[in-house]
Amino acid sequence: MASLIDTINNPQDLKKLAPEQLPALCDEIRQYITECCARNPGHLGASLGTVELTVALHYVYDTPVDKIVWDVGHQAYAHKILTGRREAFLKNRCYNGLSGFPRMDESPYDAFGTGHSSTSISAALGYATAAAMRGSPEKAIAVIGDGSMTAGLAYEGLNNAGAGDSDLLIVLNDNKMAIEPNVGGLHNSLLKLTTSRRYNKLKQRTWKALGTSAIRDSVQRMVKAGKRLFVKESTLFQPLGIRYFGPVDGHDVIHLIHTLKRLKRLKGPRLLHVLTIKGKGFAPAENDQAAWHAPGLFDVETGNKLSECANPTEKKVKFQEVFGHTLLELARTNPNIVGITPAMPSGCSLNIMMKEMPERCFDVGIAEQHAVTFSAGLAAAGLLPYCNIYSTFMQRAYDSVIHDVAIQGLKVVFCLDRGGLVGEDGPTHHGSFDLAYFNCIPGLYVAAPMDEEELRNMMYSAQDKKYITTSIRYPRGSGTGAKDWKKPFRFIEPGKARLLSEGKDVALLSLGAAGIMGAKAVALVAEKGISIQHYDMRFLKPADQEVLDYVTRTFSKVVTLEDGCLIGGLHSTVSAYAAGRKEAISRVVGLGIPDRFIQHGKVQELYQACGYDTASIARALEDLAVA
Q1: In 3-state terms, what secondary structure has residue 578?
Q2: Is the pLDDT confidence value at 218 over 80?
Q3: What is the CATH number of domain 498-626?
Q4: CB 445 within 8 A of CB 415
Q5: What percentage of the chain has pLDDT greater than the value 70?
Q6: Which end of the chain is more exposed for a tag (fewer CB within 10 A), N or C?
């Protein structure tokens, strides 16, 4: 017997199935996602939890005419499989393959591109408002969840949606967020009543007959009081003007379909609360939801994770682990140090300090702007916050850095994890811009360690009174892999570079971990008799003025290297310096992220595509030297 999944090439094929066939289809989709992610790692847990919800949405709604906006997007794998990308999903997140997130340029079924959290309500409200303005019957659905309701943007969207009468359905995928409790069968009976066509027609006729708003308000208060006798009324959504329905079982696909059909007939902003299990159907993912959010390679049969390193003893320490261990070590001697993260304690390794000092660590949820301003308040109170935010997510808190920290001269140490190209998550997650967007802020230092020991020493040095507010950015993964990185602390003077190699042909100025590739490239061209003066700049701001002066006066050929955008970063800084010095003789060539959004793929593939992998750096140095 042919698999049901093989017969589905679009949602129109899905609608040909009888409702009683859908549970079996859901099982096949869940198995397919698991098998694909085992060989080709991705965001497994969230998508396993939304299989039935996805099938029900596409079964009830007329996509792509009706618009489904997926929040974050890592819960949309079943959506991709059902919308003509089943075979392409085998190359999900691969270079030149499918994106791991919805993208408007990838499929007409991807109504809105996502990757960061909490955008769905605002975007879907835009669709609903546009449809109302055109008199179009198309529907707009926002699917939010997996932590996204903790961010302020979601509440801004809710507040705006509730103020109008847009035809918007918000589906809250609640995988243990505990916003509303499940109160059982009585609540489900009320759900059937309040979503029924007869009930709502009767309600509208009654409302018209009541006439004055004063009478209506009195009756409404009586109805709400009656409901509270039986169920816990939604205390969040109803006051905002959004009708609340649920909770319902998010893994009962047939019941979901019946519920969505009723809700589809209603008007105005409304919210369906759906209870799901993250990792549903794959026991290891259900039992350890955090670890199986994005587990990497694993064995489907055993559930054992597979190391990408052939020899586990050769596993390199990650920059994030250096951050976590170093922060704990510093906090043991400095009682003013506190740690802050927006929902990434394990990802950034703040959990290391949390285990020993939970009272001095704060996970504020997916709320980057709040994390920064909260840090500012802690600093104003005399503490020293180490605020760890991924580079791409810090973009969302940019105003708070300027307004709440920098203008007021408050000392916060920003530790920006995932700086530079991060790989398979693609353009929504690359840390391309932090060097540039922090470079222009007065009263802020911008540092980038080349290796693990440098990160450790920069974190230590940032406590000193010589340092103001400081951003320390480092990449995902490992650096040199040195096993002896945990050495006694050494103070690094702010704005001082270090000389890595001496040469006479070309000067290479590198910033951050890209300097590791630079050092390898210098060794390659040395075999051809070309000598390179290589500096690890350490700081973009303040840049080492003595080094810049010496290099631009001495070398006619200078190469800058950074794992960040060329515009506004090290290349811009060195070029501007050379242009402003009459005695400068340098031609400055920049290697880094070009002026475009970089797709997803393995990090080394992306370095090569951007022209600053080791081989490309070596070619650039050699070409300049012989030119």
Answers
A1: helix
A2: no
A3: 3.40.50.920
A4: no
A5: 89
A6: N
Question: Would you say residue 290 has pLDDT above 90?
Answer: no
Sorting pLDDT into bands at 50, 70 and 90, what band is 179?
Answer: very low
Residue 463: count of CB within 10 angstroms of its CB = 20
| Identity of residue 457 | N
For residue 322, pLDDT beyond 90: yes
Q: What is the mean pLDDT of residues 339-347?
A: 93
CATH class of 5-180+234-287: alpha beta
Question: What average pLDDT does the segment 218-243 reach?
Answer: 61
CATH fold of 319-473: Rossmann fold (3.40.50)
Q: Which of 278, 456, 473, 538 is catalytic?
A: 278
Which amino acid would we find at residue 200?
N
Q: Is 355 tagged catalytic? A: no
- Is the pLDDT reported for residue 311 higher than 70? no
Instruction: Please list, in sequence order, all residues whose beta carbon lies within 8 angstroms of the beta carbon of residue 18, skipping any fewer than 6 positions away.
Output: none
pLDDT score recorded for residue 414 = 98
Catalytic site residue from 262, 318, 360, 396: 396
Nearest to 5 by CA among 55, 46, 63: 55
The enclosing H or E element of 226 equals: helix 213-230
Q: At what angle do helices 152-162 and 120-134 cross, to 10 degrees?
A: 30
Position 6: which residue type? D
Residue with the larger pLDDT of the pair 439 and 295: 439
The catalytic residue among 52, 180, 368, 424 is: 368
Distance from C-alpha of 67 to C-alpha of 72, rounded to nearest angstrom: 16
> Where exactly are the structural domains of the chain?
5-180+234-287, 319-473, 498-626
* Residue found by looking up tokens 């690359």 in the block: 430
Q: Length of the chain, please?
A: 627
5-180+234-287 and 498-626 in the same fold:
yes
How far apart CA 218 and CA 207 sit, in angstroms, is: 12
482 pLDDT above the threshold of 90: no
Q: Which amino acid is at 379?
A: A
CB–CB of 562/570 below 8 Å?
yes
Query: In angstroms, rounded to a whole number, what is the distance separating the alpha carbons of residues 602 and 97?
Result: 11
Q: What is the pLDDT of residue 581?
A: 92
The pTM for the full model equals 0.88
What residue has token string 């299990």? 277
* Contact criterion met (CB below 8 Å) for 405 and 375: yes
Is 368 designated active site? yes
424 a catalytic residue: no
